[in-house]
Amino acid sequence: MAFPVYAMSCFKLPKTTISNLTSAMADFWWHTVEHKRKIHWMRWDKLCLPRELGGLGFKNLQCFNQALLAKQCWRILQSPNSLLARLLKSRYFDSSSFLEAKMGSRPSYGWRSLMFGRDLLMTGLRKELGNGKSLNVWTDPWCDFGGRRNPWMKNLIIDLELKVSDLIDQETGAWKKALLEENFFPADVAIILRKTPVVAVDDFWCWKHTKSGAYTVRSGNWLAVQDLLSEEFQEARMQPSINGLKEAAWNALTTPKIKTFMWRAISSILPVANELQHRGMKVDPVCQHCGIYLETPNHVLFTCDVARQVWALSNFPSPMNGFHADSIFVNFHYLFQMSKNIRIPKEIWKGYPWILWFLWKNRNKFLFEGSEFRAEDIVGKAYDEAAVWEEAQKLDQEGDKRETQPARPQVKSWSKPERFWLKCNYGYSWSQQSKRLGAAWIVRNYKGDSLLHSRRTFVNVSDLQEVQRLVLYWSLELMVSHGIGKVIFAGEDATLLKALQRPRAWPSFLSMYHSVKPLLDSFRGWKCVIESRSSNRSAFAIAKSAHQPQWGQSYVSGGAPDWLGNLLLADKG
Prior knowledge:
There is one protein chain. By secondary structure, this protein is an alpha+beta fold. It folds into four domains: 5-124, no CATH class; 129-203, no CATH class; 243-401, no CATH class; 422-572, 2-Layer Sandwich (Nucleotidyltransferase, domain 5). 46% of the residues lie in helices and 10% in strands. It contains 24 helices and ten strands. The chain has helices at 5-10, 15-30, 44-47, 61-78, 83-92, 109-123, 177-183, 186-194, 217-228, 230-237, 243-250, 256-266, 273-278, 297-303, 305-313, 328-338, 346-349, 352-369, 375-404, 464-481, 494-501, 510-520, 537-545, 565-572, and strands at 125-128, 143-144, 148-149, 204-207, 422-431, 436-444, 450-458, 486-491, 525-530, 555-558. The chain has a six-stranded mixed β-sheet. A two-stranded antiparallel sheet has the order 1-4. The protein has a two-stranded antiparallel sheet with strand order 2-3. Helix 12 (256-266) packs across helix 18 (352-369) and helix 20 (464-481) packs parallel to helix 22 (510-520). It starts with a helix and ends with a helix.
């Protein structure tokens, strides 16, 4: 069924509408025949849990509605000069900001809906450092000290009104180191100095649940579900848990239908007689086939007479003392473990999902038609279906390969720039253990000739984000100093290069962008290209050489290293 996404993006749906839509989805999931009611074997809230926590990952419409409205609030926050933002400001928050706005008197339903979305947005926002004028040093969590917090107080007497901007030299954009050392402990000072303030831009908002810092409906929905279904999440994470078994069922090599069946069996929501009686139906809970034991999922699939006979004929290794009489969890765990045993023939261990499925079909055939398959037929059908499915997967994979791959797999090679452009490939090799960074770049023209290259060693570089920022800034700085006019920057940092090209879409990298923007403005033209390791191997090789004791010195040189000749010749083609 289709969701009314546009309406949900503009208005908060009434609870009755949410309830009706949820009921329609639940009916669609549990009912196999239209206009015929069936038992809803599990609460919808539990089905909305992610698969790794035992649910099916279905959407909770209230949370989805709030996440869509939060997206509109994010747009208002990011585009305060848009027509909608200016209209709302004139009506509801003329003398304050959108995040400080009140509901007001006689608000429209649209505004009340936005306030509902804003509640979610505000729980995931964080303020990033620009010029520091809006950040209080002691009350705002403005730096990453192993987690977002404000620095520890070194002195007993402090200035409670101290702003982060007071710690920054507004002319040079550098930290006032003496003031930092006066107010903070050395460990916090070292972390602060790694963060680059950008005095040209105001402090700005980021969404802390995405890498880019931009709000997405998916991350907002995740946060809303975490909050609304907190009890369900807590219960699902409690130990001991069968969520590992459910996840193994989803990872089994079989059809989606059988995966769902195994998940239902592990969740004890198969419509067997014992479960039906527990739900108030007047049925005989005893197995109709053997007439002795209660009909439970475990009994039907593992311990009933016909199940024992089928497993014995299947050649699938049985547990030493037979399948457990009471615990379906123990039995499924055994099956999943045996499916990883390399000593068992592939055609044997791959068939167990179909054995379970045909045991269930045989139970239904006996119950509703009064007939059943022979045990030999069940085993034969199971292995035949498993073989057919595996063959179909091979054909699909071969078809996909023919459509998406060239006849011969080719390693992506370096590509030449356009005429009148130069291409600067930069790379780095960083040791997290020694905190030593080797960086390099090499500039080539449209013919593939190497014009310049450089290598540099950095020390005490503690995290990957700092590595990427240092190497990019250093490369840009040297391109400017050498008077290069039109340049293509090529590297393996996809996130960083995307943030350079679309800074508004990557708020988390806005400080980095503004710190390099003066350098970018120095070029007549610039582009970014994302490279693979194979196409960027020349720059990476030079950077890696910086870790060699005899080659640790930094330099800039014309041409290219002699020892890199064959590699560059191959790149040149």
